């Protein structure tokens, strides 16, 4: 059950993604969240602070899961990589509104705090993957040392591109497959994207299986 602050941020997330930051007012958020404008002011102070808290919350949520994977001694290194990719894909599918915001804010945001959240998050993800792969190289489960920052670009870039292209690829697949499964398309699509990324990563780190 989300807290009141989380509920407000989740509503704002959807409105920002649908209408843009400038196209969404505090009154819009309050009306959709069924709270008073004064409550938003009490918790966040301003629309800008609300956006910042939303980014901080979502980024910390993802990083905490990634750190838990790194520290899980019951998983070997390839299992950690798989869990990292699966979690990332799951978050992009489940939190599409937020990741649409991430994409737009990377390009147009003048908010230094949000830019810092994004920069710090990317660096942390690179460092987590680096530690996992270095452990795998030490144990011999991996045989290649990839470019760590480009590895993260490969993972995130492929998944973001898949997210943005989902509707377009749906039309393509409808024409290609006589047994196209409309009902389960989205889940199958993101599972295929996850498997595709894991195959690429296996090649980059020299995992033989």
Strand content: under 5%
CATH class of the largest domain: Mainly Alpha
What is the ordering of alpha helices and beta strands? HHHHHHHHH
Profile the largest sheet: none
Radius of gyration: 19 Å
Query: In CATH terms, what is the fold-level topology of the largest domain?
Result: Tetracycline Repressor, domain 2
The total count of helices amounts to: 9
Superfamily (CATH H level) name of the largest domain:
Tetracycline Repressor, domain 2
Q: Provide the CATH architecture of the largest domain.
A: Orthogonal Bundle
The total strand number stands at 0
Helix/strand/pairing category: mainly alpha
Shape: globular
Instruction: Give the rounded overall mean pLDDT.
Output: 94
Count of folded domains:
2
Gap from first CA to last CA: 41 Å
Work out the helicity level. Answer: over 70%
Uncertain runs with pLDDT below 50, 5 residues or more? none
Chart the SSEs and their pairings.
Elements: H1 4-19, H2 26-33, H3 37-44, H4 47-70, H5 77-94, H6 96-108, H7 112-139, H8 148-176, H9 185-205
Helix pairs in contact: 1-2, 1-4, 1-6, 3-4, 4-5, 4-7, 5-7, 5-8, 5-9, 7-8, 8-9
Notes on the structure:
- This protein is mainly alpha-helical and 209 residues long.
- The protein folds into 2 domains: 45 residues, Homeodomain-like (Arc Repressor Mutant, subunit A, Orthogonal Bundle), CATH 1.10.10.60; 155 residues, Tetracycline Repressor, domain 2, CATH 1.10.357.10.
- The radius of gyration is 19 Å and the shape is globular.
- The chain has 9 helices and no strands.
- Keywords: DNA-binding.
- It comes from Epilithonimonas vandammei.
- GO terms for molecular function: DNA binding.
């Amino acid at each position: 059950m989300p807290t009141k602050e989380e509920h407000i941020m989740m509503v704002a997330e959807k409105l920002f993604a649908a209408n843009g930051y400038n196209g969404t007012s505090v009154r819009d958020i309050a009306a959709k969240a069924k709270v008073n404008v004064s409550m938003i002011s009490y918790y966040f102070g301003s629309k800008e602070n609300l956006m910042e808290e939303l980014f901080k919350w979502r980024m910390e949520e993802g990083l905490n899961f990634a750190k838990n994977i790194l520290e899980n001694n019951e998983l070997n290194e390839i299992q950690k990589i798989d869990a990292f990719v699966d979690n990332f894909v799951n978050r992009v599918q489940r939190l599409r509104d937020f990741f649409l915001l991430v994409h737009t804010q990377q390009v147009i945001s003048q908010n230094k705090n949000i830019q810092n959240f994004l920069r710090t998050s990317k660096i942390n993800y690179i460092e987590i993957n680096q530690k996992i792969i270095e452990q795998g190289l030490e144990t011999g489960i991996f045989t290649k040392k990839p470019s760590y920052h480009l590895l993260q670009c490969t993972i995130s870039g492929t998944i973001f591109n898949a997210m943005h292209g989902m509707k377009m690829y749906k039309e393509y697949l409808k024409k290609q497959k006589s047994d196209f499964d409309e009902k389960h398309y989205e889940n199958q699509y993101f599972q295929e994207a996850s498997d595709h990324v894991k195959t690429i990563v296996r090649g980059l780190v020299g995992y033989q299986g």
